Amino acid sequence: MNYKSISLYLIIASISFLSGCWSQKELNELAIISATSIDKNEEGQYIKTIQLINPSNVAGGLQGGGGGQSTAVTVYSATGDSVLEAHFNASSKISRKLYHSHANLIVLSENVVREDGLENVLDAFEREPEIRSTARVVIAHNTKAGDLLKSLTAVDKIPAEKVNGTLKVTEQSRGVNMEVTLQDVIKTLTSEGKEPVISGFSMNGDIELGKSLENVQKSELDTTLEADGMAIFKEGKLIDWYQDDMAKGVIRNRMLGWQF
């Protein structure tokens, strides 16, 4: 047997040891999450809201017009005694596997982080291996976190993209907000002598009208999502809000390395 024959034999033999796509995920089997939010109800249970992308309604219509007569996203909510339990309960409402890997936004209720603190709420997110550590975190200001995900937006068909885009623009142009990721928050919480500051977002207009498709079919929207100040934390709990010049000062000092 010559050298070429031996090489061919080894190549053929090695094929049997190669694994296939054991972890492949078919698109038609997944519910792609673009954003999640956490609230609490009057009974003290956590409410987890998930914003799912409707691929057929997004194609060709991510920006401006297009997208057909249906919404680009669908929203589901579920409750539980813990954030993790609320997540499991949400999965029972959907015929597909919840897929977190594309989620790039986490919205937290100001009431929840004021009472429970960031660490208790974000622990479940940190433990979920599919959740991206680069997902942005914002605090819902004067509104429910879930309502932010239910409000439809015009230019950016996916509301999560609208929020992230606004954060980026306001940080660069006005300096009154800043992008903060899940990784940033967790790193700060586990660092001695440091406290996070996180951008806030609010709703301007009629909350119920903002959930309807008609809201984005007008030249002047009934409801808009707006960046709204910086949430200030102490020992991981929300204690105050800074606006305008105060917010600029906080961000400037953070960039210089000064911490709360």
General description of the model:
This is Spore germination protein B3. It holds the Pfam family Spore_GerAC_N. One of its GO terms (biological process) is spore germination. Residues 24-199 form the Spore germination protein N-terminal domain. The protein is α/β, with parallel strands linked by helices and 260 residues long. It has one domain (27-255). Helix content is 33%, strand content 26%. The chain has ten helices and nine strands. It has helices at 3-15, 55-58, 83-91, 110-115, 118-127, 145-150, 159-173, 182-189, 207-210, 244-255, and strands at residues 30-40, 46-53, 73-80, 97-99, 105-109, 136-140, 197-205, 223-234, 237-242. Strands 1, 2, 3, 4, 5, 6, 7, 8 and 9 form a nine-stranded mixed beta sheet that branches. Strand 1 and strand 2 form a beta hairpin. Helix 5 packs across helix 8 (182-189). The chain is globular and about 80 Å long. The model is unreliable at 61-67 (pLDDT under 50).
